[in-house]
């Protein structure tokens, strides 16, 4: 049962006055889309220029990542500081992890089903002995072999609080932020001024993010030009069956699986995707879902999701709810087995799935993370030759874009599900915002609405 926000008189708050929408040519999504097309043309027609533009894309992503850890920390602390019970925080965290685990399992199963049904690797007949690891691929395999299946558990605790921020380790920042927020809440009135200070500081950091996002079209142009210039459009056709299957399976997962979940909440998946269109285009251009993490958090708050739920669910989902990465792992592992004529029984595939449930965790937001997780899976199981990743190394950049897009959709849906599970999701309000595209003002720190930080970003 969804909770309905109300004023003191018990009457639902009136929608904000209608503001004239920006012309389409002034919308961020239009300029990002234009930049992506220009980047593709530049990389295709002038490959050397496209490769030279790599610093343009990486600099933009670095500017975003500079702000991610402070935003995650401030949002979580403010969210915990605004709740009336620490028990609620623990309940939200537990429900998020349970949903994440279920989502990962479904994504892995969908990937296994698709790759067995269409068998894109059949007929390749690559001999494992002829495959030689080199360059970045060799380093990824080495990193994967060095990772234990339980590494994400031991890596949660940072060696120092400052180090977690400096290294940009979101999982460790979440751990420290939760401890800080709980302690801040536990000290009572003494911590109230700090909570207010955190809210004010959040507004400043989000305003900085607003300035950085003005360069999103430039960053998307540089990143896309580099990708096409470096790897070439011909790379897309050489393994077209696998690429097409991955994109098709991801689309099926988002529309049918995630769409079905939202349908139970009486929310239209296509309206949600349209609401996040700018974020999806930025992810498409930069191949990084991290580049839009703060914007997604602000937009979900604008839908009416409570701040503590957004603050805990979205950042944690970037490490534990990687639907796109899970699809990729199951597809890629079995594809390599098919391409190298390595027979896999049903039991061996289920064993792969069990290992991938663990290796898929904690791999978000790191360059080559999907490849490292794949190498860790193959090295742990041992039935599929790890050197087989060379077969798909050339197209991994194109696959990473789809992984990031699916991860973004999965985490957005997860946040709405957890809010409904907590019985604090006003479905009517969500649908109203999705129709109008205008976030509704908050009625208090627990309500969600549009936070001060969200307003700073939206201006």
How many domains would you count in the coordinates?
1
Order of helices and strands: HHHHHHHHHHHHHHHHHHHHHH
Total beta strand runs: 0
Percentage of residues in strands: under 5%
Instruction: Characterize the overall form.
Output: globular
CATH architecture classification name? Orthogonal Bundle
The rounded Rg comes to 22 Å
Largest sheet: none
The percent range for helix content is over 70%
What is the rounded distance between the termini? 33 Å
**What do the pLDDT scores average to?**
78
Description:
- This protein has 459 residues and is an all-alpha fold.
- It has one domain: Proton glutamate symport protein, CATH 1.10.3860.
- 70% of the residues lie in helices and 0% in strands.
- The chain contains 22 helices and no strands.
- The protein has helices at 28-45, 47-52, 54-82, 86-118, 135-146, 151-154, 161-167, 170-186, 192-213, 216-231, 234-238, 240-264, 269-275, 277-286, 293-302, 307-320, 323-339, 346-359, 369-381, 396-421, 427-436, 452-458.
- The longest helix is centred in the first third of the chain and has 33 residues, at 86-118.
- The radius of gyration is 22 Å and the shape is globular.
- It starts with 27 loop residues before the first helix and ends with a helix.
- Residues 1-19 and 442-450 have low confidence and may be disordered.
- The chain crosses the membrane at residues 28-46, 66-86, 98-118, 170-187, 208-229, 241-265, 371-395.
- This is C4-dicarboxylate transporter DctA.
- Keywords: Membrane, Symport, Transmembrane, Transmembrane helix, Transport.
- It is found in: Membrane.
- Its main location: membrane.
């Amino acid at each position: 049962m969804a909770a309905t926000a109300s004023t003191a008189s018990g009457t639902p708050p009136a929608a904000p006055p209608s503001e004239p929408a920006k012309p389409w040519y002034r919308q961020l999504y239009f300029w990002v889309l234009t930049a992506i097309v220009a980047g593709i043309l530049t990389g295709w027609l002038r490959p050397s220029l496209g490769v030279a533009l790599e610093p343009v894309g990486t600099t933009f992503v670095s500017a975003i990542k500079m702000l991610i850890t402070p935003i995650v920390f401030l949002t979580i602390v403010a969210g915990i500081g605004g709740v009336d019970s620490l028990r609620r925080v623990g309940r939200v965290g537990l429900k998020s992890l349970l949903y994440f685990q279920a989502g990962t399992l479904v994504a892995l199963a969908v990937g296994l089903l698709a790759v067995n049904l269409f068998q894109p690797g059949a007929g390749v007949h690559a001999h494992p002995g002829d495959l030689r690891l080199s360059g970045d691929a060799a380093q990824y395999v080495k990193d994967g072999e060095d990772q234990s299946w339980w590494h994400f558990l031991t890596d949660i605790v940072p060696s120092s609080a400052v180090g977690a921020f400096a290294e940009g380790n979101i999982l460790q920042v979440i751990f420290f932020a939760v401890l800080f927020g709980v302690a801040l809440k536990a000290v009572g009135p003494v911590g109230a001024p700090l909570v207010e200070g955190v809210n004010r500081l959040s507004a400043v950091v989000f305003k900085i993010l607003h300035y950085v996002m003005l360069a999103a079209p430039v960053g998307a142009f540089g990143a896309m030009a580099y990708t096409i210039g470096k790897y070439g459009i011909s790379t897309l056709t050489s393994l077209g069956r696998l690429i097409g299957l991955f994109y098709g399976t991801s689309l099926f997962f988002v529309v049918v699986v995630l769409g079905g979940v939202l349908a139970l909440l009486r929310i239209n998946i296509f309206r949600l995707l349209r609401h996040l269109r700018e974020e999806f285009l930025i992810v498409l251009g930069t191949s990084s879902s991290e580049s839009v993490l703060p914007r997604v958090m602000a937009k979900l708050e604008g839908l009416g999701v409570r701040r503590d739920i957004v603050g805990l669910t979205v950042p944690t989902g970037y490490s534990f709810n990687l639907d796109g990465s899970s699809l990729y792992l199951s597809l890629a592992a079995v594809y390599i087995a098919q391409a190298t004529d390595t027979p896999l029984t049903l039991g061996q595939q289920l064993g792969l799935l069990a290992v991938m449930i663990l290796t898929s965790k904690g791999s978000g937001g790191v360059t080559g993370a999907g490849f490292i997780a794949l190498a860790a899976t193959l090295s742990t199981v041992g039935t599929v030759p790890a050197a087989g990743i060379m077969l798909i190394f050339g197209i991994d950049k194109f696959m990473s874009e789809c992984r990031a897009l699916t991860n973004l959709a999965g985490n957005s849906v997860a946040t709405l599900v957890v809010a409904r599970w907590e019985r604090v999701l006003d479905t009517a309000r969500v649908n109203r915002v999705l129709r109008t595209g205008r976030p509704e003002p908050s009625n208090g720190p627990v309500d969600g609405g549009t936070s001060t930080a969200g307003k700073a970003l939206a201006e």
